[in-house]
Structure of Dihydroxyacetone kinase:
Amino acid sequence: ESRALAARLLDALRDAERALADAESRLGELDAVAGDGDHGIGMRRGVRAALTAAEDAADAGAGAQTLARLAAAGWAREAGGTSGALWGAMLGAAAARLDDEAGADPGALDAAVAAAADALGRIGGARPGDKTMLDAVVPFAEAFAAATGTPRGRWNAAADAARDAAAATSDLVARRGRSRTHGERSVGTPDPGAVSFALVVATLAPHLPG
Ligand code: ADP
Ligand code: MG
Ligand code: MG
């Protein structure tokens, strides 16, 4: 059961890696408007390290929790930058809700999503409206909790909410992270971390049971 879930996670990471490779230059351009332009590079480096760690774990016969935990650690270690540390923390918090023996129980996915959003707020310290990835992550977690239906249907609804929320960060003035020093310059451009979060969750939906 847990091995089947581990295989699913590995496939999901492969899709995320492809999506972030395709988006690398666009994410860099968004980050260059008010930040330092490295968001595409950092996300790509992070997801590749996560994928490599997950492949090694799967080869070694790891269960879902170990695979996800090692992927999270790989992301945090290799990505560099603020977003890499925060992605590692989110994935690590989600991984802690998985199991190495049983498959995912019905509540595990809900717990994992809520834990990831909590970890981001706690570790990053951003508030809603600061123009960070939190402005996509919180609407995602709220929409997922509120949605009914299959896991995939609920995830799709949440991914739509994240996409709309990421687009809406365009109107905000950055108050956190590197781009706060050029906060006014960021108006008219969405937050790169919010955009990449929305992209990643959209690619994961087909991997959920539906
Ligand atoms: P860096 O800013 O170190 O170059 P990246 O460019 O990879 O890192 O990531 C920038 C993104 O990180 C921002 O667009 C924002 O979404 C996110 N971010 C920065 N600081 C925080 C924070 N305190 N809480 C949540 N997200 C943050
Ligand atoms: Mg940057
Ligand atoms: Mg940087």
User: Anything to note?
Assistant: The pocket of magnesium ion (ligand 3) is lined by residues 36, 38, 81 (CB under 6 Å). Residues 51 and 210 are 24 Å apart (CA to CA). Residues 2-207 form a domain with the Serine Threonine Protein Phosphatase 5, Tetratricopeptide repeat fold (CATH 1.25.40.340).
